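User: Hi! Is it possible to get a structure for several chains at once, not just one? Here's what I have:
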Amino acid sequence: MSSSSTTTTTTRLLMLKASDGVTFEVEEAVATKLGAINNMVEEEGSEDLICLPNVNGKFLGMVLEWCKKHANNNTNSDKGNDEVNKWWDKEFVMDLDQNTLYHLLMAADYLSGTELVDLLTEKVASMIRGKKVEEIRETFKIKSDFLPGQEEEIRKKNSWAFE
Amino acid sequence: MTKRNITDLPPDVSDIIFSYLSMKDIARLTVVSRRLRELCYRLPFLKFDDTIHRRNDSKHAQLRKFLNLYMYERKGNSIQSLSVTWKVSNDSEEDTVVLWLDKAVNNNVQQLELDIELTTHPKFELPASVLTCKSLKSLVVRFHNDVGTIENPHSGVNFPLLTCLKIKSVRIEECIGELVSSLEKLEELELEDIVGSTSINISSCSLKILSITFMDDVFEVEVSANKLEYLSLRWYFLATENEKRALKLDTPNVCKLTWGGDLPNLDFQREFKNLDYAIIRPRLVLEANLEKLLKAVDKVHCLSIFDVTLQVFKEGRILPNTFKYLAGLNITVAGQYNDLASIMFLIFETAPNLHRLCIKERSANDDGRITETAVQRGPMQSLKLVEIELLKKGGEVLKVIKYLLETASNLHRMVLYFHPPLPLGIVREINAYERASSEKVYFGLKVSAFLLRVRGRGKRKKHTVIVVCEDPRSGGDEKEDKGSAEVKETIESVKEQNGVVTKSVPDDSTKSVGIHHIGSGQKKKPHRAAEAGVECMQESTKVLFCLKIETFGSLTMGRGRGKEKNTVTVVCDIPGSGGEENVPVCRRRGRPQKPLNDVLHERRKLRKQKKMAKETVESVKEENGVETKSMAMADDSAKFVGFCHIEKTSPIGLLKLELCASEYRSTVKPLKMIGCLIVNCCINRNHVLNMKYLHQKSFLGVTPSPGDFWTRKYICETKSLIQNGLCRFIGDDRTTEDLNLSKRTTMPSLKVVASAVCPDSNGPVIRIATCKHGPSSPLVGESRAALLAIQLAASSNNKHVIIEGDSKVVCW
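Assistant: Yes, the chains can be modeled jointly so their relative placement is included. Here is the combined structure:
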């Protein structure tokens, strides 16, 4: 998807290499939405190939897709565009399963894409918000590892939160 | 790759996640598993908020108890930020909050935010431990209902790292000036309602942002800050006490200044060198002080002033050329201001390099409604573009317009927006100016359409606003009265006039200007359609069509399977240029009176004829005197057809089309050479796509079979395509059969899909664009679809456009 950059402007293209060898060619303006890449670009200067050993190609692609969307909209600070952007973000996170969410978050965190981390963490928070303990366990497939009776004891103490 | 769960995230990421959650959610999380419990107790961002429990005392107490316990069980885990929003009503509550603050201070808190509501408990004293917290970078303390206290601790206030300090409703025993000057790194300071001292002296060499709201009991203020960039001052006192108040400013680097309240005696130590933007909004004016202030800001680039300030200009106290650098000026005046024109001339003199002027008119008798007058102008001699938008019919602004017309020698374009109807008096008056007639002045309409609730038994409802631009000068006087009605009223009165079809415009171009009611096209179902048209006629290309459509109100929900149709039809009619002044414009708009069958029949007939020869089309038109949307003509080899006809159209510059719905606003500009195009935009809360455009096999890769079009399955197959923002182009060589337009189907989905479909005169779809939109009201979606349609229209070089909206709302 990233190789489909149609604009033939003078913007510099960067090659990003994921852990599984997949490479992405993206415009500099897009990649520098990610703090880590921005730093590398500034430090290394002419280096055009950046290896990202901690990120899988699939998730790097998704991260870059997000970057592209937001880099484009940076140039056009229209209010309507902001709105479109918000919807885009919402849909971007809407159907993510937990595994993807986890890896995306890790990738975004590793690449210092602060805005993306915020978006994804907010999504996770919304999965927790207002849910009962059992629902949280079910959602995240967590097993209670408290000793018998321990949980009940805590619950008793904070009964207001479990109504 | 192993399946990982979000609970395996690194702690810094999970901290961010938990920071979005309330303490109640956190309390639940502590029971889920040991790992989560551990994470919860090391959370560095804490937000204690009792707002939702304030009315329930027992819950309030339970929450407090939990937080106490929580803070205790955190042990020594560091706290980065703590925000406490709490209602303090007795001593023990105060002790609790103080306990939390102490705990936070002990754990090296960096950001503290206190939002304390004092109720029956009249006093809250900020603990001394906070005032000596060395790690603190930002401190926000706000009290509500009453005044809290900050008392100087024995060891002195000590915030070596503090960069941001905001305090509200606080009694400070120590002189605030000393406090501020002891903060070496302070960059942002916000003071509001500080009680305790009558004289405030702020002196800081690091301060960048300062916002002060003074109260009546402060008499002397002195601010000296070299690096200050943003300064906002509000000082309210009795008008008779002007003389007793003094303000001394030594802030040379301020670039943005906001001034409100009353004006004290001013003393500017050094002038503002870099002032970029200034808002001056005094409450009552002592002119000497205001004059001094205005002179002090003479290097400003952009200035906002309010009508009281104009007095100073009026009396000629500001010398010509005072504001040499002023490029933008915003003036807000009350509607009844009488001398605006003369004052404006004086202002023009004081600011020779003004580029942009914006006048906002607050009309006195029309609360909340603001009339805007925006004049964009260059220097007097090179004035190029003027835009004026006004509600009222002339008056003072008219004088300004005339003045501009006389003096601006290089006027390139002037656009005047009016609410319909176009005031003929003004138009004539302006056109009387020689310069105005030289293709420079354009009139625009601003249409505010209040969508009418039409309740009928039918499945179909229709609201139409038709805006047609015609020559205002040729308008007949007898119609003016009618024209003066508001659009809204017009629409409402449609019912009474139902059955009335649009008038057709006679050939002699002595057409009326005003609002016309276009009744239902279907005789037997008069309540199902309501259309209102606003027409004004123009004779030459110089009348530019600038249109602003604002729709308010909600769409109607019909009974049961209510279906409604809201149509905004924009028709630009520009008869031939110069030579052919009296080109006949025959038009009948809206659904014809005739029974539907006739129309359909005519339509088919037309199509046949069209296929045979394009030229016949025009004759057909004249012969019938009727044009319907579906049978509209194209003016050239016609890929797109609109329902209005156009004779040898000269270029139309639709400069700006703004569609505003209450929630969504979009602007498209500039649109040039919009051609004749029918764009159907349909949106739906439930994703209803008008399938009549999608039946082509090649288009969607589905084999259509009669009776099978509208099945759910069919849409499912198309759904993914459409939701991907599919944009397909279909060649115009296809032919279609007649379709049953009323059939449709729905697809429950939370997404709104806006689509714009452009069929040509014969029905074949030429282009389709769709886009996805989040769940929102139909009006918003409609606007989105309209925007899409206009973008589509703009990208095609057609001369006429008809934008038609279909909104089918399916009740949940």
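Residues 363-384, 444-751, 806-812 of chain B have pLDDT under 50 and may be disordered. Chain B touches chain A through 42 residues (CB under 8 Å).

User: Great, thank you!
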